[in-house]
Amino acid sequence: MMNTLARTVSRRAFTASRNASTLVVADLDGAAMGPSTLSAVTAAVAIGGDCTLLAVGDAAAAAECGTVDGVSKVLHAATDSYVGGETVASAIASAMESGSYTHIIAASSNLGKNAIPRAAAKAGASPVTDVIEVHGEDTFVRPMYAGNALAKVKNSDAVKFMTVRPTNFDKAGTGNSAAVEALSFGSADASPEFVSASQSQSDRPDLSAADVVVAGGRGMKNGENFGMLETLADKLGGAVGASRAAVDAGFVPNELQVGQTGKVVAPNLYVAVGISGAIQHLSGMKDSKTIVAINKDKEAPIFSVSDYGLVADLFDAVPEFTEKC
Ligand code: FAD
């Protein structure tokens, strides 16, 4: 079945500027650089001009940021405080005092979504969020109405603040050796206190970055049946995802939710099992390269975005699919 929804991926800039100077906020994961940083750098390179990475936190992660192609230098803001939106917004303000930037970019991650609006408010600017296409220095495309409409936004702020959706920008390469400079910065307006982190441990790849996602919906009937999808995901080397209905019913934890109010994914292969294909779910996965749907209702909307559709009872089809993989 052909995918009838417009694919929104555009990975090229139309008119890259030579005069732009972009500060990209790196997403750090402890002592490592998070992969969404690479997509944010690609967006900055599409705008054109110079690209500086701001790494708030660990020194080893900042050094890793220096390996990203297209980056001219890394500003490392060391801190003992918890690295939340407040801390990063304060570091952005200090970086803006020491350098002259036309754009401040972060990935649409938890950190980026927290820090960019705070930094923009401090600068009296309006952030453009969830950018999926760069059309030059001041014009960007972002989704609206759960991805039903795409808005082309022209931003006239002197310094443009934006978050970019990582799945819509290829990851920048590595191999560079950009210099790392220390950045001192003032204390955050409000200092959040770190209480504890609760993260489920899994040997499967991270849902947002996985090459293959096997997702289940309300049709799975209960959490135990998700074991079938885990077996299939493990065979395919993928992650497990879920619809909101499956999460709300308590089948699986919230962090597996894909969609408008969950994670946005764009793997090479997305297998939707017992998922009807509500627009809020589609907005989180429709940019997947190949979509396979298994549903017993041949009228289910998921089939309108599927490349391959199987009208079948999932309890027969999934074990057979897994056996043949
Ligand atoms: P259903 O719509 O109930 O579909 C279940 C499907 O399973 C059906 O198509 C049925 O035919 C099929 N099925 C049942 N049994 C079998 C079987 N044995 N074999 C094969 N197929 C079977 N939803 C999200 O997913 N993500 C979001 O981020 C999200 N955000 C939302 C935000 C807002 C503001 C709102 C209002 C809604 C949001 N939703 C989101 C909810 C969304 O509207 C749908 O309710 C939800 O996606 C439905 O999940 P589902 O497809 O699993 O369930």
Number of helices: 8
First and last CA, distance:
21 Å
Q: How would a crystallographer describe the biggest sheet?
A: 7 strands, parallel
Q: Tell me the total number of β-strands.
A: 17
The arrangement of helices and strands along the chain is EEEHEHEHEHEEEEEEEHEHEHEEH
Sum up the overall morphology in one term: elongated
Q: What strand order characterises the main sheet?
A: 7-11-6-1-4-5-12
Strand content: 15-25%
* Bound small molecules, deduplicated: flavin-adenine dinucleotide
Which percent bin holds the helix content? 10-25%
The whole-number mean of residue pLDDT values reads 92
Q: Give the low-confidence spans.
A: 1-13
Radius of gyration: 21 Å
Structural class estimated from helices and strands? alpha/beta
Subunit structure: Heterodimer of an alpha and a beta subunit.
InterPro entries: DHS-like_NAD/FAD-binding_dom, ETF_a/b_N, ETF_a/FixB, ETF_alpha_N, ETF_asu_C, ETF_asu_C_CS, Rossmann-like_a/b/a_fold
Pfam families: ETF, ETF_alpha
Keywords: Electron transport, FAD, Flavoprotein, Mitochondrion, Transport
